[in-house]
Amino acid sequence: MIVAIIFFLVVVGSVVFHIFTPWWWTPIASNWGGIDDTIVLTFWITGLVFIAIGLFVVYCVWKFKYQKDRRSEYKPEDSKLEFRLTLITTLGVAALLAPGLIVWNTFVTVPKDAYEIEVLANQWSWSYRLPGKDGKLGKTDIKNINDKNPFGINKEDKNGGDDILVQNGPLHLLINRPVKVLLRSTDVLHNFYIPQFRAKMDMLPGSVTYYWFEPTRLGEFEVLCAEFCGTGHYAMKGKVIVDKKINYNNWLAQQTTYVQSLAKVNANIKQVVKLTK
Amino acid sequence: MSEDYNKFKLEAKSSEMLNDENTSSIKIQDTESEVPEQDLYHPKSFITKWIFCQDAKVIGIQYSITAIAIGLVALVLSWLMRLQLGFPETFSYLTPAGYYQFVTMHGMIMVVYLLTALFLGGFGNFLIPLMVGARDMVFPYVNMISYWMYFIAVIVLVSSFFVPGGPTGAGWTLYPPQAITSGTPGSNGGIALMLISLSLFVIGFTMGGLNYIVTILQGRTRGMTLMRMPLTIWGIFTATVLAMLAFPALIVACIMMTLDSLLGTSFFMPSMVQMGEHLKYGGGSPILFQHLFWFFGHPEVYIVALPAFGIVSDLISVHARKNIFGYRMMVWAIVIIGALSFFVWAHHMYVSGMNPWFGFFFATTTLIIAVPTAIKVYNWVLTLWRGNIRLNIPMLFSLAFIITFVNGGITGLFLGNVIVDVPLSDTYFVVAHFHMVMGIAPILVIFGGIYHWYPLITGRFLHEGMGKFHFWVSFLGSYAIYFPMHYLGFIGVPRRYYEMYNSPYIPTSAQGLNAFITVAALIVGFAQLVFLYNIISSIRLGKIAEKNPWQACSLEWQTEYVPPRHGNFGKKLPIVYRWAYDFSVPGAKQDYIPQNVPPSEVPEARTEKT
């Protein structure tokens, strides 16, 4: 009796906890509401299964407790019942999978009007590269990376010169515009993750990965690294600010391009050389 | 073949033959076996009896003791981690590097050195020969070496705590490039010893695994057809086959990474710039390692889960006094799950940067696995239906297994459904999921199994009161740890964070939850000490168990002596006439008919064709 009651409380308690939990999604700030909906659907289907099986166990424990003079039912198989259960489960699984795959299809299909930006991760900080006036990012290679060229931009590529480099400080994004983030790493695995945007993807040295999303809420958001990257993993944080067009353009105008930063570095070097003479 | 054997075979063939009047008069004939009996090396000294022992039962106990000992190390590591997470300001002894080292060692020990070794090395060794009616494993000497290789692997693993730089802190997945570059603790000696230890483990385990497979296929006693084997054996058998196919991927990955680390090859290492310096690597693929690792890693989940499935089926059946419902379906479900487990590995890699179109394939295969798994759950609970349920400790653990496994299984449906995985991967939802489904649920079965078979191993029962205490604290405590933890994942709290509570999006109450989880973890941990005390003290003080104290049908309880001696059975090997689940057969005097009872001894029982 007590056993049945405790198991009953565990099952019911789980459901009550779920309904009244103070811990739930961080409010969404991107177009990926479809992901949240899929999760809610998953909760309904799997939750019902959990409750049904849990309560069935409780009922059996309560009803069929051991009695010396009683015998269990003798029924090795029931192929009809087993077939029905298999069918219902298959339908349930299909009901979970189909919507999930539809949303995944949207997730991997980047809209044509998305603008591109690049996120570059290294141990343990974030930097960003935006296309300049030509609207194109220059080609890069890890082998080109040095003090003067932290992104490894290919000097031969004409598109690279006007690329805007953001090395310290937050990344700004336009509200209600789909953006494709190209993800690069110079050293180990990282993952560009903003909980409010829901999306994430690992960054690998030697590859360019990507995902897309559309910010739908103005404000500041924290960037976290979501793939273990060594001792400083937990401290690898950054900031993203979602802006209206005017503020975004103001911010963009203040950033330096690759050519400008190169000139600055060279000027500094000359000055240092002069001073030491 | 003699005339007698043909007659005998008829009776041994199936228990329902009895209903046929013509065969009921056949008497069992003592027939010679077609092959001579196995030649066993009987121990002559303390060393050959307890140290370099060739008796599978002793080897099983050696495996279990070693696994539990190293598991206790991992338990203590988890306390230290939880103190850091729950009370970061009170306990400042742990550096980030130390934290990551503890996380890594905790994970690796629990998955490989505790769970795999305990289920297959411990339960497998002890139960396989007894349950299939063999005198021992078919290769006892190799079996002995298998244990000692495992022992050396554990020693090498532990020694990595004492090398300069400490053990590896790469996370139990050991992803390169980070595992062997300088930003990660233990990236020199620590990772090398880890890789060597894993390789030794695989070598040792292959010796044991071949033994289990060959013994089950070739060493079964007469009448023990495959479809009469207890589900415990089916679970262990399928898991071992998986291990034989999955571990090669691991050892290959270990060797390649060792070469990358020590000789500077670039299997997994692309060109990199670390801390402003160009490393000498180039051209390798970090994703390749992930594919190899998870090609091992996902079947590994089932290497742990399938024996648990099998054992819990037997515990439920015995203690509900009812045959396992849908036995054939259960067998096929185990086999199908095992086979499918090789086609789902990349669901661990949905956001790894592999081609995103793979997501469609792996989400589909992953969710298909849910069907045979759900069937197993249905059949467990249908076994309880109209049973005669003894609520003793093995049964309590089995019931708790059902609840925690269903809970952990359905969160698997979240993570397997590729788009749902995107926000949840690398958060505490994943941590909660895999602890529930692969930590708590199988460990509850291990506990249930120990309470169930302890009387066979020692001839005494474990203490009931301590057992109940251990059960309730372990079950309710671990549920209180991992159930709420899922919700940290919904907030978006990332895993593998040394500390995280200055993030603006995390409510401060989440810190309270973390403190609660830590306290619960400490309590659950201490309950395990009571369990250990119970195991040790009951060897001498426990209530003496009579023969077959649970009235079970399977062969391990039908030995001549309890505990069974070397060679397991008496002069004659048992002959099997029925499956292991003839409980509450209508007409039979007792509510169970052991597997080695011929139909002619229970003429009144009306068994169905099974």
Summarize the structure.
The complex is a heterodimer of chains A (277) and B (610). Chain A has 277 residues and is α+β, with helices and mostly antiparallel strands. Chain A has five helices and eleven strands; from the N terminus they run αααββββββββββαβα.
Can you give a write-up of this model?
The complex is a heterodimer of chains A (277) and B (610). By secondary structure, chain A is α+β, with helices and mostly antiparallel strands. Chain A is built from five helices and eleven strands. Chain A has two domains: 2-65 and 77-108, no CATH class; 115-273, Cupredoxins -  blue copper proteins (Immunoglobulin-like). Helices cover 39% and strands 20% of the residues of chain A. The mean pLDDT of chain A is 93. Among the domains of chain B are: 53-224, Cytochrome c oxidase-like, subunit I domain (Cytochrome C Oxidase, Chain A, Up-down Bundle), CATH 1.20.210.10; 393-545. In chain B, helix 3 runs antiparallel to helix 15, helix 5 (140-159) runs antiparallel to helix 6 (189-218) and helix 7 (231-262) packs antiparallel against helix 8 (286-319). The interface between A and B is large, with 100 and 111 residues.
Give me some keywords for this one.
heterodimer; A: 277 residues; alpha+beta; Immunoglobulin-like; 6-stranded mixed sheet; 5 helices; 11 strands; 20% strand; elongated; B: 610 residues; mainly alpha; two-stranded antiparallel ribbon; 15 helices; 1% strand; disordered N terminus
Instruction: Give average pLDDT of chain A, whole number.
Output: 93
Strand order of the largest sheet of chain A: 8-5-1-2-3-11
According to CATH, the homologous superfamily of the largest domain in chain A is: Cupredoxins -  blue copper proteins
Structural category of chain B: mainly alpha
Just name the CATH architecture of the domain at 53-224 in chain B.
Up-down Bundle
Low-confidence stretches of chain B are 1-29
CATH superfamily of the domain at 53-224 in chain B: Cytochrome c oxidase-like, subunit I domain
Total number of beta strands of chain A: 11
Order of H and E elements of chain B: HHHHHHHEEHHHHHHHH
Instruction: Kindly report how far apart the N and C termini of chain A lie.
Output: 92 Å
Mean pLDDT of chain B: 91
Number of separate structural domains of chain A: 2
Please give the share of residues in helix of chain A: 25-40%
C-alpha geometry of chain B: globular
